[in-house]
Design a protein that fits this description.
Layout lengths: L5 H27 L2 H4 L13 H16 L5 H14 L7 H11 L4 H6 L11 H4 L2 H6 L4 H13 L5 H19 L8 H9 L6 H10 L7 H8 L11 H9 L5 H9 L5 H16 L6 H6 L10
The structure holds magnesium ion.
Pfam family, one: ADP_ribosyl_GH
Protein name: Hydrolase
GO molecular function: hydrolase activity; metal ion binding
């Protein structure tokens, strides 16, 4: 029988909490401005619905469980398309509607994703937003983390920056998993350890800039310098989200409040930070009100 490692489930649940928490803020900020965010008051009703980040992370974990860790790209592409067709109202990015519809209609994923954006491929943050549990899965082997993170990313995102972003998130989750039960890695060390395994890219430059930021850097300044996802690209999202996670590796609750304060693509920055932090901490320490407020996940293994 297939078992999903505890750290993988922890990462997935942390990702889902971050996604649902962040997504809930979009409407509040639009309607009421930032007063509630600054006061850290978040209504627990209506339900905090998770979005595409969680829907795709769940698909990815199921693929890992079935394949034993080696991604079957053809099957994964079809699974992403099927999850999309089942529920299209999960906040998918504009180009992903087209990609997933066409894959679902039977077009080869390689051609569909390579043809996006005039042949450059998408460099959106969608390959990264779902990648943390994969890092937890392969935590014992960082080469496998990088390889499998890139393989899952390529199924939807052709641009090397999108793939580097996915590798960065998976590596961070792997390092968080490896630190379970041990001392808390220092933020600069943690970020440098991610950067040194990345290909030359804007993502790597961003993670290096993040690693060098003074400890007392404000979240606003970091979000402005690194980018908090306003452009929804890998390089504009992942260095910031990892900087937030790396500073809160022992406190998921504080880490998510901190991450959301940088605004931008808040469901995805919080999903990434949540997936990384929870790979070390789990989600049990989150307030009971959060557990009650967040939309439950379907069973990870359906067989
Ligand atoms: Mg989303």
């Amino acid at each position: 029988m297939i078992t999903v490692p505890t750290a993988v489930l922890d990462s997935l649940y942390g990702l889902a909490f971050g996604d649902a928490f962040g997504d809930r803020w979009f409407g509040i900020l639009r309607r009421d401005g930032s007063a509630a965010l600054e006061a850290r008051t978040l209504p627990t009703e209506p339900l905090w619905r998770w979005s595409d980040d969680t829907a795709q992370a769940l698909v990815l974990v199921r693929e890992l469980a079935e394949s034993g860790g080696t991604i079957d790209q053809d099957r994964l592409a079809i699974r992403f398309a099927a999850a999309y067709a089942e529920d299209t109202h999960r906040g998918y990015g504009a180009s992903m509607h087209d990609v997933l519809r066409r894959i679902g209609a039977g077009e080869p994923w390689q051609e569909v994703v390579a043809g996006q954006f005039g042949g450059q491929g998408s460099w959106g943050n969608g390959a990264a937003m779902r990648a943390a549990p994969l890092g937890a899965w392969h935590a014992a082997d960082l080469d496998a983390v990088a390889e499998q993170a890139a393989r899952q990313g390529a199924v939807s995102h052709h641009h090397p920056e999108a793939v580097a972003a996915a590798v960065a998130v998976a590596l961070a989750a792997a390092l968080a998993t490896r630190s379970r039960g041990g001392h808390t890695p220092a933020r600069p060390d943690f970020l440098h350890a991610v950067a040194e395994r990345l290909p030359a890219s804007d993502v790597r430059s961003g993670v290096r800039v993040a690693a060098r930021m003074p400890e007392r850097t404000s979240v606003r300044h970091a979000a402005e310098v690194l980018g908090s996802g306003y452009r929804m690209s890998g390089p504009d999202t992942v260095p910031y989200a990892l900087w937030c996670a790396a500073g809160h590796l022992d406190d998921l609750h504080e880490g998510l409040w901190f991450t959301v304060a940088g605004r931008g693509d808040i469901d995805t920055t919080c999903a990434i930070a949540g997936g990384v932090i929870a790979a070390r901490t789990g989600v049990a320490a989150l307030p009971a009100a959060w557990h009650a407020a967040c939309e439950p996940l379907p069973p990870v293994l359906t067989d």
